């Protein structure tokens, strides 16, 4: 830099005769005019080729039209007017390109994945300790390493080896649902948490460590709060605010970060350190962490990557599984005819002497159709955020570098042209081979597709099949003897949960009660080692 300015200082001034000066001036003016004209033309061309969207107000854009809740529904309605492929929505400080068409999601997120695998920055979540969790990582080397690690423990072969463990946890869940039905949501969470912690850390007693379990559940709650779209964190719109001290008036978000961050860090670091301790003592059981710590070349960056990729397993698993099973419970209460059909299939295929398991999935097409319909009817995440990392053009529309893309997967899964009467829960639609598989959409796309999708489906399937095999799910009655059927309504959160409701889990017969007790006892006695890591 210094050398360059020194050289510039020593360039002798060139002297031109006056006519040449005039000519040069004219040439310069002409070039400048051409440059400005080409800029105007380019900007006009770009503007002319921006996707359409609802007309907004100067400065405020579409802010005043944005709903407080269920933004995906409004975006679907707007997309019907302005275009399912790409629609432009503007609010102060951000422009969203909303996609409501599966083909476009596949074209961009899979076909052009090198351009569309980045994530928008979430300052609030980063400063609360989640900077390095996989779902928030930008598309960089760390993300690629994290995903390579996750692939090793969530691959088809690895997940197949977890099936016995998943079946056992389902058996223990049935016992908990029988003895304490009021707390069924908590039982779902605990089952998912046990599975996630076992896969991730695996050491003796990890799933019984109440402190860790509660910490992990709390961490998940914090995560949902700080990444919630429209979570109302001003700091996400104005990252500079993050520099304010916690004592500053109106800096409540800084005080929240100060309280939440230690919980997050302890939950992420403590079990990891425990695995290292067990490895050093030669007592570590097989797990994601112990396997990678032994097989990878461990330098501080790699160790840190394993630590945070591990946390992504439990962050990915708890709430998503709980929400899926809560909607399943809701659907069974509100659709007794579906419940009966599934039970008839289970009685015919599995019979009364054993519980169904993950391995029965192919022979239970109706239960499998229920699983698909749950993921279609109530997708757990309704919109997937990405950003583009270079200028691009799609079907003639200009997509500038850094554009905030939102894939409205809820709209795709509720498209009446693909799924007639989309609001109706109707598993039968998936018995037709022509119905597009919702599982290809509900878990995302391309290089950011959910790495836990096989575990998620295996656990959801085993649980649904086991619950239906032994229980009749019924709505409780009010004081007048009327059934209190739950309303179909979501709570306002990142993960799509139903509004809480009560459910009775009534054993279908004495034989069903006996199998609940026998299976739970059996599950308690067999070692809870994961085969994948035990060889
Ligand atoms: C009920 C189940 C689940 C659903 C519906 C679900 C859905 C999703 C979706 C839609 C994404 C974003 C994909 C994209 O942007 O294209 C995602 C990301 C992710 N999921 Fe899941 N998921 C579930 C369960 C799980 C489980 C069980 C795990 C771990 C074992 C997991 C781990 C992750 C991780 C680590 C990411 C971030 C990936 C990345 O950003 O590269 N998920 N999930």
Automatic annotation (TrEMBL):
Asked if the keyword Protein transport belongs to this entry, the reply reads no
Give the UniProt keywords, A-Z.
Heme, Iron, Membrane, Metal-binding, Monooxygenase, Oxidoreductase, Transmembrane, Transmembrane helix
Membrane-crossing ranges are: none
Q: Which residues bind heme?
A: 450
List the subcellular locations: Membrane
User: Cofactor(s) for this protein?
Assistant: heme
Task: Give this protein's Gene Ontology molecular function annotations.
Answer: heme binding; iron ion binding; monooxygenase activity; oxidoreductase activity, acting on paired donors, with incorporation or reduction of molecular oxygen
The metabolic or biological pathway listed in the UniProt record of this protein is: Secondary metabolite biosynthesis
Reading the lineage from the top rank, the first entry is Eukaryota
Pfam families on file: p450
InterPro entries per the UniProt record, alphabetical = Cyt_P450, Cyt_P450_CS, Cyt_P450_E_grp-I, Cyt_P450_sf, Cytochrome_P450_fung
Looking up PROSITE patterns in the UniProt record yields:
CYTOCHROME_P450 (PS00086)
What is any one of the record's Gene Ontology cellular component terms?
membrane
Stated membrane topology is: Single-pass membrane protein
Q: Which family does it belong to?
A: Belongs to the cytochrome P450 family.
- Descriptive protein name: Cytochrome P450
Q: Which organism is it from?
A: Phanerochaete sordida
